[in-house]
Task: structure prediction
Amino acid sequence: MTGREVPDEYLEGYTQILTEACVTGRRLTRDELESLRTRGERAAEAGLGLRALVRRHLSVTRESRPTLSATEADRVLAVVEQAIDAFAEGHERAQRLAVRQEEGVRREFIDDLLYGRSDLGRLAERAERFGLLLSRAHAVAVAQGSKPVEDMHPATRQVESAVISRFGERRILLTTKDGRLVCIAPGEQDEVLAFFAKQAHAATDGGKVAIGRPHPGAGGVVHSYEEALNALDLADRLHIDEPVLRAADLLVYPVLTRDRQAMADLVRNTLGPLQSARGGARPLVDTLTAYFDSGCVAAEAARRLSLSVRAFTYRLERIHKLTGANPADSVHRYTLQTAVIGARLLGWPDNDV
Result:
């Protein structure tokens, strides 16, 4: 928009203010400054750019100069400085208010989307405003670092900039929720979530990223988001060190814990006898954990626990004697490994089950 296209209503009274202030040599009054701020706000609400508005004010000032005496003309710059500053302040005030309102609308939409609230039809309409088509399947990735992040956090801006630079406008929504980075993308665009995971892992100084499975509809976004959160929780409880977790690779764990009481019974019946060992059950449970995590290779498991192979083998024999289950036996091994996984998920033996 050029300066000539700025409607006259947004410069109403400006020439009079300019002339009177230049003639008297006074500063602009409080009422005059407030009127300029108000017109600046109205101009911003009408979608007029500040550069065009400033050019139009300067153009009017230039047209007024021939009517001023030499002394009055010397005062023009000081008056224009006050007038444009007030006008720009009002314009910026309206812009900040609009941004805050937009942020509020966006935050409300994200909360409704990720918590499954609001009418689904209305939610789908609102989603299009933010680049999502809820008729398609979507997958959600969630990144969690050692410190919480919010929308204006440097890590958030860094990841958002990297993703947009790489993929442009691909109906991707990046946001934060409960101190975590969140990326929602069409389910078939796995490369977007993989790239987000890489960037978020680096930006959060080694934080973990979990990726839910694609699911259709507005409810699918919630489902995928919850899968990602559950994957992060599992990684914490099972001490999984992988930087990127996929819910599809961890489906066995929700299956194992679906019947919590049955799992608790398995842990008590299988591993309960270890509590009678000197030092309690914890060292022997850690022994089994290292053994299974290392592919049942005693030498590697001993290295992980900083034990000699002989000491580690003695622990396995002790476990066999106390539980009656031999970790080296394929049939017993499955029961022991399932019980160890259950113990880690339930926090046993530190917590009663």
Q: What stands out?
A: The CA atoms of residues 291 and 301 lie 5 Å apart. The chain has 15 helices and six strands.
